[in-house]
Amino acid sequence: MKPGCAKGPPSGPAARDARSRSVTGPERSEPGPRRRTAVGRLAVMRALLVVNPAATTTSARTRDVLIHALASEMKLEAVTTEYRGHARDLGRRAADSDDIDLVVALGGDGTVNEVVNGLLHRGPDVDRLPKLAVVPGGSTNVFARALGLPNDAVEATGAILDALENRTERTVGLGLAAGTPGTEDESVPERWFTFCAGLGFDAGVVGRVEQKREGGKRSTHALYVRQVVRQFLNEAHRRHGQITLEVPGQEPVTDLALSIVCNTAPWTYLGNRPVYASPKASFDTALDVLGLKRLSTPAVALYGTQLLTSSPEKGPRGKHAVSRHDLTDFTLHSKVPLPFQMDGDHLGLRTSVTFTGVRRALRVIV
């Protein structure tokens, strides 16, 4: 659930050294020799590579190898992100350009989220917008892995080049969240997410992990588990939920202590183990919701075990669990401000969020 977020590199000599080993500023590489029999097919493709130098699992040397591999197959412009939001700005530039066919995001889920929000800043248009490819470089890489890509940057790059040569792609649905009209959050701008969002407990965990990362801790699964425990011990509303799920045409579901919105399955990974909060969620449908009405010690033991042993056929279930599948429009309201996250990026406190599931929003190379 907690991907490497799209933050800029740290300041000082370490940052300067990282940037000097990667690609700094726009760098254009002329296409190299064509691969196998598809002579000239990729040589005319124009691609923008967005590189997050702070990505958790890729070294500067690995990034350089990947950049040269991609540049040998297409006309490539590689840009290293230098501040939070830079990947979004680059995605926006690509969306508004007439000479970019493909955007490749090299980083974690936070980098991917920023690129997607830049690409879709005017809304989805699968026939006009550049395609997206993802090279996993974060700690979890949920979006890339949910697409079926290897969780290794070098292997994923090879898979992407094969997919480009074979012209294989997928049009995926995405989630859109915005402040709810008529509430104190109505001015919050809309934002896209690729695999999940959460209001309440899980977003609190994400916030704690981000604080630790900003303090110099490395994003690991052990760090995440520790923050889950601390969030549980300090959760003020775990016995009496504050969240209401409202779906048009249905009775509201009240008193939720946790709410997770999934655009695909799995919801996250613990190491190599996929975790399914909403097993039916898919890039081919709208959005799924999992809500839990209690987070008491027995309830957490039950649902935590169910999550850890979940599968594509079986997720959390029981009298305090609420599941909804393929929702196009719905709203989560809270009686008090609660933490909110999207794609593992903590976005502060919210009292009301309106969600839309948008099918066929973006073309992705797989």
TrEMBL record:
Gene3D superfamilies: 2.60.200.40, Probable inorganic polyphosphate/atp-NAD kinase, domain 1. Its cofactor is Mg(2+). Residues 1-38 are annotated as: Disordered. GO terms for cellular component: plasma membrane. Residues 42-181 form the DAGKc domain. Pfam families: DAGK_cat. One of its GO terms (molecular function) is ATP-dependent diacylglycerol kinase activity. It comes from the Bacteria. Belongs to the diacylglycerol/lipid kinase family. This is DAGKc domain-containing protein.
